[in-house]
Design goal:
Strands 1-2-9-6-5-3-4 form a 7-stranded mixed beta sheet, with helices on both faces. The chain has a two-stranded antiparallel ribbon with strand order 7-8. Strands 10-11 form a two-stranded antiparallel ribbon. The protein is an alpha/beta fold. Helix content is 46%, strand content 17%. The protein folds into 2 domains: 174 residues, Rossmann fold; 189 residues, Dehydroquinate synthase-like, alpha domain, CATH 1.20.1090.10. α3 packs across α4 and α6 runs parallel beside α11. It starts with 9 loop residues before the first strand and ends with a helix. It binds nicotinamide-adenine-dinucleotide and glycine (GLY). Glycine binds next to loops.
């Protein structure tokens, strides 16, 4: 019989053949992070390098370190600068320098305490230190909780594009404490909701309905603690299911890119940072919804429901003023082009999507014209 202590939080498993792990969700779970690691089979005495930034380490660094130290781990904190522009090989080199200084060994761990930027970089640093050591993801933005922390995509940006350098490296544990969202700027919270709405459309109609019924989904207080935990659980489960079915994105995992094809165009042409990633994805979902309606594969009624929910969360629904020629050119340069063909994830109903590579430039032009003539 195992005497391992266990903690009463929601738990989703990511049932990968080689690297199965759990996503633990619960208020104050950060206070129990040491115990959660023991629960996950990590032995006391291991060295842990916690990587975070000022925004997050300020309110949560001590809580995390205290919990780790109280369970007999040897933990240190490394602070890196915040922001997408810091997601570079140079910052990963800083993490490696810290790993070297602290003599991190094969049995040591890195722990990412932060949003997707910290998570992606720490995951990549762990993937490449000593050819791969374990990483724990402790996401503190809604986007990182429902998306970036689960699934093992890690990496940094290259001047030529986002996330061009990276590796698949699954975490050994993900711990989500919704209380950390209390300090998250509301705009970042909304950006994360775009990914939650995405899960509703690509596979979980009940999740979509839950958000539709919520009167004020645009901030954490409006969603409320109970619904927020449920939303986190369903979103984590949705992501886990897709990742388990297609870990390395050979096919199905591409449905997670719903809304991202047009979204990346907006991020590229409007400049990274002008629109948050989630805002661009929300607009991208509206755009691809229009495309599906025009092709006759989605009902106008459901497309309007998607748009209403996005508007209710105070995410953008008006396509920015962009030259159509530039949009087409940017689409051709997107990572989602395969064998020269554009790939779009199109909705067929709320809860179901299909991957298509037969969309013509004419259809895209028609869609963009419709979007531009329907400004609210
Ligand atoms: P982010 O990590 O930049 O965080 C947004 C801002 O919020 C930052 O300024 C951060 O310091 C601050 N912050 C984070 N948590 C906070 C908290 N609890 N309280 C106060 N401030 C807090 O942005 P993000 O949206 O979390 O992540 C975006 C990144 O994630 C992108 O680089 C994207 O490429 C990546 N991403 C990765 C995956 C994946 O599968 N690996 C999926 C989606 C996105
Ligand atoms: N965020 C998309 C993926 O994890 O595949």
């Amino acid at each position: 019989m195992s005497a391992a202590p266990s903690i009463p939080h929601r738990r989703i498993s990511v049932p990968l053949e080689r690297d199965a792990y759990d996503v633990v969700i619960g208020s104050d779970s950060l206070n129990d992070i040491g115990l959660a690691l023991i629960d996950a089979g990590v032995r006391r005495g291991r060295k842990i390098l916690v990587v975070s930034n000022e925004d997050v380490a300020g309110p949560y660094g001590d809580i995390c370190l205290k919990s780790l130290l109280s369970q007999g781990f040897s933990a240190d904190l490394l602070i890196i600068d915040a922001g997408e522009d810091q997601k570079t090989p140079a910052t990963v080199a800083r993490i490696h320098d810290a790993a070297f200084k602290r003599r991190l060994e094969r049995s040591s761990l890195m722990l990412a305490l932060g949003g997707g930027v910290v998570g992606d970089m720490t995951g990549f640093a762990a993937a490449t230190w000593l050819r791969g050591i374990s990483v724990v993801q402790v996401p503190t933005t809604l986007l990182a909780m429902v998306d970036a922390s689960i699934g093992g995509k890690t990496g940094v940006n290259h001047p030529g594009g986002k996330n061009l350098i990276g590796a698949f490296h699954q975490p050994c544990l993900v711990v989500i404490d919704p209380n950390t969202l209390r300090t998250l700027p509301v705009r970042e919270f909304r950006a994360g909701l775009a990914e939650v709405i995405k899960y509703g459309i690509i596979g979980d109609p009940d999740l979509f309905h839950l958000l539709e019924k919520c009167v004020q989904p645009e901030h954490a207080e409006g969603v409320g603690a109970e619904l927020l935990e449920l939303v986190l659980e369903r979103s984590a489960a949705a992501k886990a299911k897709v990742v388990a079915a297609d870990e390395k994105e050979g096919g199905l995992r591409a449905i997670l890119n719903y809304g991202h094809t047009f979204g990346h165009v907006i991020e590229t042409l409007c400049g990274y940072g002008t629109w948050l990633h989630g805002e661009a994805v929300a607009m991208g979902m509206v755009a691809v919804g229009e495309l599906a309606v025009q092709r006759g594969s989605w009902s106008r009624d459901e497309a309007e429901r998607q748009k209403r929910l996005i508007a209710k969360t105070k995410l953008p629904i008006n396509w920015p003023a962009l030259e159509i020629e530039n949009v087409l050119r940017t689409l051709q340069g997107d990572k989602k082009v395969r064998d020269g063909k554009l790939r779009f994830v199109l909705p067929t109903s709320i809860g179901q999507v299909e991957i298509r590579d037969d969309i013509t430039s004419e259809e895209i032009v028609q869609c963009l014209q419709a979007l531009q003539s329907s400004y609210l």
